[in-house]
Design brief:
About 35% of the residues lie in helices and about 15% in strands. The strands form five sheets. Strands 2, 3, 4, 6 and 9 form a five-stranded antiparallel sheet that branches. Strands 12-13-16-17-18 form a five-stranded antiparallel sheet, with helices on both faces. The chain is an alpha+beta fold and about 650 residues long. The protein is built from 18 helices and 18 strands. A hairpin with a 2-residue loop joins strand 2 and strand 3 (about 75). Belongs to the lipoxygenase family. InterPro entries: LipOase, LipOase_C, LipOase_C_sf, LipOase_Fe_BS, LipOase_mml, PLAT/LH2_dom, PLAT/LH2_dom_sf, PLAT_LOX_verte. Keywords: Calcium, Cytoplasm, Dioxygenase, Iron, Lipid metabolism, Metal-binding, Oxidoreductase. Its cofactor is Fe cation.
């Protein structure tokens, strides 16, 4: 069920003046449609009161002339000017007008809002107006609220329906049926599909963001904050002589000193613990990519781990086979990266690996620990299995290659594809908004070519169950692994109510869309700077190939493998910007646009907000006992939809 009657705003330049279509400007006095042409208007003069609410955003007010036409069951009024002494439609204002209809149009069906520039300003400026709502009070009866909540640019006409939610078969009057059909045609014309790259999900057919209308662009305030935040960080690093420095880091100490300019408690925690096996395992559960880990009941044939290899971690009295049968062994397989093309950074080819990582859930509520890492999908003499018992730098380098694979999968698939491109499909299909995609193409190990290849591969595997959190958790067999805060918090927010038949399927689908575009995106986006600011924990690119033998890794070689200075700066600035919401926040459950006027949906919204508040209290209470609080699914942190 959705709220009807909010049509696409269309200016005369886009209109066929001879056609009275929803959202189109028609010449004054022209016939509106066959359903109304034949009506003989009554001679009774009817006075209406009109209340208009203008948005509070910068530039929301207008100098343009605004009028309304009231469409009823027995006819339609000519445009009735909304005019009073002084300036009307100031930002944040609610203003009252009286208009007199020359005839009785019967019960009100629609309201047409006309906007035209003042004659004096017509050749000079196109003045946009953000209308929140109009309220029409007839001579007898209750006020009728017409939600709008959109920008009206230039001159044109917008058709609004009273705010009661309706499904199509409840629109019995021919005028309402025609209005719904015309609205859908106009929206489909205004929002066309296109294929950006082969194998990618389809997206909105626009060349640049400059051609988007104001309703799907960032606000001026948000856009300004976004660029100022990124610009200030870039200037700081440029003044330090780092942004253009293409060489290697001199040491981990230098790297640490440079990136102390944007500290958060989480960044500090990562720096202190990034080398620890327990933190390495923790990030598969609660890091940026908590969606790959799955329970392992038997070893893959191409990952020949033996009892002797893992005995130091498993301890006495057990075996690898026993732990596999017990369900305490888990696998993270980055096989989708196998053979993917890589990028060129500073004129140098970059390298990638497709590792396999075996992990062990220690008894009780102990940490999830890595048992073994193989850096390719093909075992053999040139692809050794690295172990915690190996030399410190061998083991650390192997884990860092896994973290690089996590970066690539996260940015290309978990974040870009699932968090933005799939979300854009939902948004465009429901004509809501265009998310702003933000791949890190320039300074990463894969680049646009590798990202595209990964997206094409994952699109072939992507299915509906993967996008539904409860089904995904069951499919990966991670229902009971302890300390999995992404799962626990996500399932609370998911919260599908019980129902039957097709309604249940509809509820699940809508919940999946909402969860994907809000909570899921927050979980894989909000922590990017926290977990990626310390480069060795989440390296975006690797400059040397994966090791093919043990005993060769040294501190100098470790640093030489990591990203060059300028590429590091590019990525860290990007992660800083993308992790911080640039104003105009709308946390999950916050709906300043009052599209619904009935008690039932308002009560549902209030109940939802109450439940979110309780979830937030529970999460914050739990976090007090955690060394590293998991905050990314705390409802006040989650945006209503993809917003950055």
């Amino acid at each position: 069920m959705g709220r009807c009657g909010n049509s696409v705003w269309q200016s005369p330049a886009l209109s066929d003046w001879g056609l009275a279509r929803v959202g189109q400007l028609v010449p004054r006095g022209a016939a509106i449609g066959p359903a109304l042409e034949s009506q003989t208007p009554a001679v009774t003069m009817t006075e209406f009161r009109v209340r208009v609410s203008t948005g509070e955003a910068f530039g929301a007010g207008t100098w343009d002339k605004v009028s309304v036409s009231i469409v009823g069951t027995r006819g339609e009024t000519p445009p009735l000017p909304l005019d009073s002494l002084g300036k009307e439609f100031t930002a944040g204002a609610e203003e009252d007008f009286k208009v007199t209809a020359p005839q009785d149009v019967g019960p009100v069906l629609l309201l047409r809002v006309h906007k035209a520039p003042l004659d004096l300003l017509r050749p000079l400026v196109s003045d946009a107006w953000f209308c929140r709502w109009l309220q029409l009070t007839p001579p007898q009866g209750a006020p009728l609220r017409f939600p709008c909540y959109q920008w009206l640019e230039g001159a044109g006409t917008l058709v609004l329906q009273e705010g009661t939610a309706k499904i199509s078969w409840k629109d019995q009057h021919p005028t309402l049926k025609k209005q719904r059909q015309d609205e859908l045609r106009a929206k489909q014309e205004a929002h066309r599909w296109k294929t950006y790259l082969p194998g990618w999900p389809r997206c909105l057919d626009e060349e640049t963001v400059k051609t988007l209308n104001l309703n799907i662009k960032y606000s001026v305030a948000k856009n300004t904050t976004f660029y100022l935040r990124g610009g200030s960080a870039a200037v700081e690093l440029k003044l330090k002589g780092l942004l253009d420095r293409k060489g290697l880091w001199r040491s981990l100490t230098e790297m640490r000193r440079v990136f102390s300019f944007r500290k958060t408690p989480a960044v500090e925690y990562v720096f202190e613990h990034w080398q620890e096996d327990a933190f390495f395992g923790y990030q598969f559960l609660n890091g940026l990519n908590p969606v790959l880990i799955r329970r392992c009941r038997y070893l893959p044939e191409n990952f020949p781990v033996t009892d002797a290899m893992v005995a130091p971690v498993l301890g006495p009295g057990t075996s690898l086979q026993a732990e596999l049968e017990k369900g305490s062994i888990f696998l993270v397989d980055h096989g989708i990266l196998s053979g993917v093309r890589t990028n060129v950074v500073n004129g140098q080819p970059q390298f990638s690996a497709a590792p396999m990582t075996l992990l062990y859930q220690s008894p009780g509520s102990g940490p999830l620990l890595p048992l073994a890492i193989q850096l390719s999908q093909t075992p053999g003499p040139d692809s050794p299995i690295f172990l915690p018992s190996d030399d410190k730098w061998d083991w650390l380098l192997a884990k860092t290659w896994v973290r690089n694979a996590e970066f690539s999968i996260h940015e290309a698939l978990t974040h870009l594809l699932h968090g933005h491109l799939v979300a854009e499909v939902f948004s465009l299909a429901t004509l809501r908004q265009l998310p702003h995609c933000h791949p890190l193409f320039k300074s990463t190990g894969l680049g646009i070519g590798g990202f595209s290849e990964l997206i094409q591969r994952n699109m072939e595997q992507l299915n509906y169950s993967t996008l539904c959190l409860p089904e995904d958790i069951r499919a990966r067999g991670v229902e009971d692994i302890p300390g999995y805060h992404y799962r626990d918090d996500g399932l609370k927010i998911w919260g599908i109510p019980s129902s039957l038949g097709t309604r249940e399927a509809l509820i699940q689908y809508v919940t999946m869309v909402i969860f994907t575009c809000s909570a899921k995106h927050s979980s894989v986006s909000a922590g990017q700077f926290d977990l990626g600011a310390w480069l060795p924990n989440l390296p975006p690119t690797m400059q040397l190939p994966p090791p093919t033998s043990k005993g060769q890794a040294k501190p100098e070689g470790f640093i030489a493998t990591l990203s060059p200075v300028n590429a590091t700066c590019d990525v860290v600035i990007t992660l800083w910007v993308l992790s911080k919401e640039p104003g105009d926040r709308r946390p999950l459950g916050t709906y300043p646009d009052e599209h619904f006027v009935e008690d039932a949906p308002r009560q549902s919204i209030a109940a939802f907000q109450h439940r979110l508040a309780q979830i937030s209290r529970d999460i914050r209470e739990r976090n007090q006992g955690l060394a590293l609080p998991y905050t990314y699914l705390d409802p006040p942190v989650i945006e209503n939809s993809v917003s950055i």
